[in-house]
Inverse folding.
């Protein structure tokens, strides 16, 4: 069967629910989920209902598993930013990591102390607005007390976490796995290979077959040259009529590295296409993926034996320094911008104004003073990466 006829058949039906696709229910499906920064879209692939339903649920689980990375790198989404991510310090302090690079306690702290003249309540809120809301609630609870002083005396303070931040990662599973498989099928679809030509993947996506057609591949690095300045996502699909295999490779943030066996009945031309993106800038980049596996490599992978001892650590040791370098560069830029803006504001100067020597000295002094906590933090805590 030629792909043209398969393609025209399959173009008309949703890859997930088989509903006929019309201009009314067609959807733009991201090949790599937009929640982790993907931009490339396909039309005529899945219906709107599935895009908002199952597809959305699978992608959300994947996005959740990679959320720490999305927040840390502030991945560029088409709408909104990655949701704040809960982390803990080694000492057990709960914090929320925000996409703007800042952190806040995970909840407000309200403590009450009995004193001879009554009761003293102290509030530590995350924002001024939250503090006002809590005060209003207390005012309702204790109408006999006067909170006007408290409203007037709200102060802001910046503090450091009480120790190093811990976080843990887990990738894969049936929901995120379906998102990964769907990404490979969408890439094949971009190459005019219809879902019907990805029978192993489709049986899994539709829940007909329980055996996952995807698994990690860490036997060797399939990415030819890894950038060391930024992380990337890549999806590559290769069809080989000799082995009859249609294989996909999906990698996120340099860590989740998955092979997907889409079909064992591939009879089209030899073909390979790759899409790759820097999720921190939304720029498409060039990444070469070697999808020519030896029979031994393929069979081991098929037998779930493609994660040699130490290979996960090696992937981690590649990705983490890259991510940390990006994270530190962002923290430095933020600290500098904040210090600059505050120094300008405190001295009441516009940045374009000409300054005399005394003002320049004063400005430098204020900048240094405001940058001090950040600089000390670098000196004391930042590892060299
Ligand atoms: Zn559908």
């Amino acid at each position: 069967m030629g792909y043209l006829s398969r393609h025209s058949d399959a173009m008309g039906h949703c890859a997930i629910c088989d509903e006929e696709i019309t201009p009314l229910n067609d959807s733009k499906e991201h090949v790599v989920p937009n929640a982790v920064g993907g931009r490339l879209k396909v039309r005529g692939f899945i219906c709107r209902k599935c895009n908002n339903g199952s597809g959305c649920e699978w992608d959300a689980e994947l996005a959740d598993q990679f959320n720490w990375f999305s927040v840390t790198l502030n991945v560029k989404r088409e709408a909104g930013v990655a949701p704040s991510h809960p982390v803990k310090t080694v000492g057990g302090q709960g914090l929320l990591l925000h996409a703007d690079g800042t952190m806040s306690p995970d909840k407000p702290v309200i403590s009450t102390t009995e004193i001879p003249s009554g009761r003293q309540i102290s509030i530590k809120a995350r924002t001024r607005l939250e503090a006002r809301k809590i005060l209003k609630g207390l005012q309702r609870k204790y109408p006999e007390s006067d909170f006007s002083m408290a409203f007037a005396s709200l102060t802001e303070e910046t503090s450091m976490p009480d120790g190093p931040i811990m976080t843990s990662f887990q990738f894969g599973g049936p929901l995120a796995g379906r998102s990964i498989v769907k990404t490979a099928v969408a890439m094949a679809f971009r190459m005019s290979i219809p879902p019907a030509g990805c029978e192993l993947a489709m049986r899994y996506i539709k829940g007909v077959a329980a055996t996952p057609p995807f698994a990690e591949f860490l036997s060797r690095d399939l990415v030819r040259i890894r950038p060391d300045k930024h992380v990337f996502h890549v999806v590559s699909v290769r069809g080989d009529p000799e082995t009859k295999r249609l294989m996909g490779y999906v990698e996120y943030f340099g860590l989740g590295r998955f092979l997907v066996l889409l079909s064992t009945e591939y009879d089209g031309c030899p073909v390979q296409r790759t899409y790759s993106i820097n999720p921190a800038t939304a720029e498409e980049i060039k990444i070469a993926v070697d999808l020519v596996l030896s029979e031994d490599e393929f069979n081991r992978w098929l037998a779930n034996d493609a994660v040699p001892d130490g290979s996960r650590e090696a992937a981690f040791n590649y990705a983490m320094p890259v991510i940390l370098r990006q994270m530190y560069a962002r923290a430095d830029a933020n600290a500098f911008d904040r210090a600059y803006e505050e120094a300008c504001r405190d001295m009441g100067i516009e940045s374009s104004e000409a300054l005399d020597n005394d003002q320049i000295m004063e400005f430098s002094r204020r900048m240094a003073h405001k940058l001090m906590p950040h600089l000390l933090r670098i000196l004391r805590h930042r590892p060299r990466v």
